[in-house]
Each structure stands twice: as structure tokens, then as C-alpha cells.
């Protein structure tokens, strides 16, 4: 008995049908891989940014230099490390909030997160402008004309304490950590926070609470020094226990 096999044309048609069926699946797997990769890179950049955000806070806000340390390269406080090179404006060092002031905190190839670069930008806040609704990055103080972030001569010793143009000591700064990847100029993650001197305790209070329980026993009230229940617009607000997940706070 003679058994017929498949012809070449039949085999080619079968492979064509198989290829048409498999190609969409290949594209699906490729898309899934790219989405997974993007999620991984986003998570990695956030971990990196948060790690170095906390690293800055581990550096003293201000620590005075003495004469014996001049010329040794010892860096003691935040602006020693991250003030960078800035021009003088009106006689004092430029404390305005500009991205070009950012200093490389960790470069590519350096552990941890060797595939990422981290920059940090700092600026001292004018205390008088807090609470006026001015964004922090627009509330930068004008530094005293004699102030230097890092004394390099004996004549500058004692002039590194941050003070404004009127000689008032500055105790709050805002700093921002920005993460870059693949030698790119576009940031993949940016996070900022406020850092205060131990001399200052920030008065934080709840200004808005979502999903406040309707049960009266679970509600609270906060009135600041200016607010009254009769004048809710004057910073009087209801608040809930701090176990709530979604709250916003302000200084």
C-alpha cells in the first residue's frame, strides 16, 4: 500500500499559517517585557531618589568650621557638600532656585544604583515669607553679602553660618534630589523636602483630611493661633486621627 506524504506547497502553507499565528504572540510578549522593564526602572529610580533624599538629611544642617580646618578639605554641613559654584548677585551669593545650581551627588558607575546619576539642589528659605502662600522655591532668602558656604581662608571663619541680608540667621532650607538614567538630560524621578535646623521645630498640622469618619467620637478639631470656629477661612479645620492614610500637611 502506498502512503502519500505532504507536498512542499502544503508544508510551506502550514508554516505560513503558523507564522501568522505566532507573530502577534511575539509582539504581546515584547510589549509585556517593555512594560515590566519600565515599571522596574521607575521603581528603581524612586528607590534611588528616596535613598539619597534621606542621605542629605543625615548631614548636619550647620556646623561651624574652625581655623585648624582651613585648607584641609573637611566638609561638615549640607552647604559644604552641595552649594556648588554660584555667582554673586547684588554682592551676595545667588540663592535663587535654579536647576543649574544642582550638584552631582552620585555619578554613573558608583554604587549604589550604578546605572543612575543623582543631583541635589539646595536653597535657604526666607522665614518671613513662609505662610503667605508663596511656593517654597520662590521664598528663597537673599544671603548676607559676607556669607560663604565653605570658608577657604582664615578671614572667612565664622562667616559660614547661613544668614540673610539683614544678618538674621536662617534655619530652614528646601532641597531637591533629581535622578537621571542612561546619560540622559531628562530626569526620571524628582523629589524635594524641607530640612530645618535643630534650633527650629516646625509646627505641622492637618489642613485637609479625606474620608473623615462621620462618627463624632472619631473626629477632632484644630485651631491655629489665628483661627476660630466662627471663621473657618482663617485656618480652622476639622481633623481626624493620624491613622488616616490620606492627609496633607503644611507648615
Q: What does it look like?
A:
The protein is an alpha+beta fold. It has two helices and ten strands; from the N terminus they run H-H-E-E-E-E-E-E-E-E-E-E. Strands 3-4-5-6 form a four-stranded antiparallel sheet. The longest helix has 50 residues, at 8-57. The protein starts with 7 loop residues before the first helix and ends with a strand.
Provide a compact summary of the structure:
This protein is of the alpha+beta class and 251 residues long.
What's the arrangement of secondary structure elements?
Blueprint: H1 8-57, H2 78-82, E1 88-89, E2 92-93, E3 103-106, E4 116-124, E5 172-181, E6 189-196, E7 205-209, E8 220-223, E9 236-239, E10 247-250
Antiparallel strand pairs: 1-2, 3-4, 4-5, 5-6, 7-10, 8-9
Order of helices and strands: HHEEEEEEEEEE
Q: Whole-number average pLDDT? A: 79
Return Rg in Å: 29 Å
Count of structural domains? 2
Count of DSSP-assigned helices:
2
Helix content: 10-25%
Q: How far apart are the termini?
A: 94 Å
What order do the strands of the largest sheet run in, or round the barrel if closed?
3-4-5-6
β-strand number: 10
Provide the β-strand percentage band.
Answer: 15-25%
Structural class: alpha+beta
Point out poorly predicted stretches. Answer: 202-229, 232-251
Shape verdict: elongated
Taking the sheet with the most strands, its summary is: 4 strands, antiparallel
Amino acid at each position: 500500500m502506498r502512503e502519500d506524504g505532504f507536498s512542499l506547497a502544503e508544508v510551506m502553507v502550514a508554516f505560513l499559517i503558523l507564522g501568522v499565528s505566532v507573530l502577534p504572540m511575539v509582539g504581546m510578549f515584547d510589549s509585556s517585557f517593555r512594560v515590566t522593564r519600565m515599571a522596574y526602572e521607575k521603581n528603581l529610580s524612586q528607590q534611588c531618589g528616596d535613598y539619597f533624599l534621606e542621605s542629605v538629611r543625615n548631614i548636619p544642617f550647620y556646623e561651624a568650621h574652625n581655623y585648624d580646618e582651613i585648607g584641609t578639605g573637611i566638609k561638615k554641613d549640607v552647604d559644604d557638600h552641595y552649594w556648588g559654584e554660584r555667582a554673586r548677585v547684588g554682592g551676595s551669593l545667588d540663592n535663587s532656585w535654579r536647576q543649574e545650581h544642582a550638584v552631582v551627588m552620585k555619578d554613573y558607575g558608583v554604587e549604589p544604583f550604578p546605572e543612575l546619576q543623582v543631583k541635589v539642589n539646595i536653597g535657604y528659605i526666607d522665614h518671613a515669607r513662609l505662610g503667605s502662600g508663596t511656593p517654597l522655591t520662590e521664598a528663597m532668602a537673599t544671603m548676607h553679602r559676607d556669607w560663604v558656604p565653605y570658608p577657604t581662608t582664615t578671614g572667612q571663619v565664622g562667616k559660614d553660618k547661613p544668614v540673610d541680608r539683614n544678618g538674621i540667621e536662617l534655619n530652614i532650607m528646601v532641597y531637591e534630589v533629581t535622578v537621571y538614567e542612561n546619560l540622559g538630560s531628562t530626569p526620571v524621578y524628582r523629589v524635594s523636602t524641607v530640612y530645618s535646623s535643630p534650633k527650629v521645630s516646625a509646627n505641622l498640622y492637618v489642613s485637609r483630611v479625606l474620608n473623615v469618619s462621620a462618627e463624632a467620637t472619631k473626629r477632632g478639631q484644630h485651631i491655629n493661633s489665628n483661627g476660630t470656629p466662627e471663621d473657618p477661612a482663617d485656618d480652622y479645620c476639622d481633623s481626624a486621627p493620624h491613622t488616616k492614610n490620606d492627609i496633607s500637611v503644611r507648615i
